[in-house]
Amino acid sequence: MSHRNAPLSPEGRRRLVERCQRRPIAHVAAEMGISRACASKWVNRWRRYGDLGLLDRSSTPHHSPRATPAEVIAQIETWRREKKWSASRITHELAEVGIKINRRTVTRHLTRIGLGHRRFLDPTGDSNRKPGKITARWPGHMVHLDVKKVGRIPDGGGWRVHGRDSEQHRSAGRAKDAGARAGYVYLHSIVDGFSRLAYTEPLADEKGKTAAAFLAGAKVWFAAHGITHLHRVVTDNGSCYRSGDFARIVGAQTRHQRTRPYTPRHNGKVERYQRILAEEVLYAQEYNNEEERSAAIGVWNIHYNYHRPHSAAGGQPPASRLKTGVTNLRPSYS
User: Fold this and answer.
1) Rounded to whole angstroms, how far apart are CA atoms 126 and 120?
2) Phi, psi (deg, nearest 5) at residue 159
3) Reduced to 3 states, what is the DSSP secondary structure of residue 190?
4) Per-residue pLDDT of the chain (334 residues; tens, 9 = 90+)
5) How many Å from the N-terminal Cα to the C-terminal Cα in the chain?
6) Which domain holds residue 89?
7) 164 and 192 share a domain?
8) Which of 2, 12, 224, 273 could form a disulfide with 6 if both were Cys (CB 3.0 to 4.6 A apart)?
9) Whether the Cβ atoms of residue 25 and residue 43 lie closer than 8 Å to each other
10) Mutual orientation of helices 36-49 and 10-20 as an angle, nearest 10°?
11) Nearest-CA neighbor of 317 among 200, 139, 196?
12) H/E stretch holding 77
């Protein structure tokens, strides 16, 4: 297939052949901005195959001595349809009968015949694999941590308030060039999997020491709500959660569980919380500076825990699922 800047399309090749019938190939090639070898190739193809020779050919090789035999592909499809085996299991079974083949090759053949996903095996198209649920059984049984990186709001407001071509946006850019503080704010969040009680703190970075200090403060915050021990801490595979400082704060009495790489749904409770945070606070209104937004996050965090209904708590606030009541609430949001 020709790329968008190709000098010869099928119509251009036809005109090339017509000109080469009356003039030397080298002259026509120079006139059309291509090499003589390229012009000769298309002229020779036209002489051998006619107008069909001017069309693009498939890049598939004519001979593939090491290609997977057809009977092996048929066996792969049979095992997949009848026994619903994975590519790894099929690779193992083929090795047992003396056929050595790479697992990636089996995966490629399954995709090519339309059986790459298990949902393609059922007539209804539904998946026949039931997803497992990650369920916390009591407060502190399982807490989820994550970091959300958001852009720092310059003094006077950012481009969301004034527009990208506004004078405020340009002046903020000039201030950054002059050395003003810019960059990002890192929102460290922790969510209790049972009650959905959540705590968020805006911090300057996502280093291991920062994440460890946040977890230490979160433990004190949870203890004030009656959650004195965290049995399991669930995080992704970020560098801050793999540091020695964070491991020391987790402690030997708490299990640190990391999610599978590139699988954020395993930490879905805090991911969903961050989405709510973005929708109801971060981008819900206009802020004139970063301090104003940080203060709004603190106020909203109280609203989320003690007043906002949550479906996981039966339409009640997350704090309603705790045994210990908290009385140090703000009387208002002003």
Assistant:
1) 8
2) -70, -25
3) strand
4) 566 667 788 888 888 999 999 999 999 999 888 999 999 999 999 999 998 888 888 888 888 888 899 999 999 999 988 888 889 889 999 999 999 999 999 999 999 988 888 776 766 655 556 667 778 899 999 999 999 998 888 777 665 665 666 666 566 565 565 555 567 899 999 999 999 999 999 998 999 999 999 999 999 999 999 999 999 999 999 999 999 999 999 989 999 999 988 888 888 899 999 999 998 998 888 888 888 999 999 999 999 999 988 888 888 899 888 877 655 455 444 4
5) 64
6) 70-121
7) yes
8) 2
9) yes
10) 90
11) 196
12) helix 70-83
Q: How far apart are CA 108 and CA 114, in angstroms?
A: 10
Q: Are residues 234 and 313 in the same domain?
A: yes
Whole-number CA gyration radius for the chain? 31
* Cα separations in angstroms, 230 against 167, 235, 238, 250: 50, 13, 20, 9
Same-domain status, 224 and 293: yes
pTM greater than 0.85:
no
Of 78, 133, 75, 123, nearest to 101 by C-alpha is: 75
Say whether both 40 and 97 belong to one domain: no
Overall number of domains in the chain: 3
Residue 259 DSSP label: P
Alpha helix ranges (H) inside 224-267: 244-250
Whole-number Å distance between alpha carbons of 62 and 59? 9
Give the tokens for residue 232: 């399991």
For tokens 């996981």, the residue is 312
Sheet holding 198-203, edge to edge: 198-203, 184-192, 143-151, 232-235, 255-258
**112/228 same-domain check:** no
Residue 61 lies in a domain: no
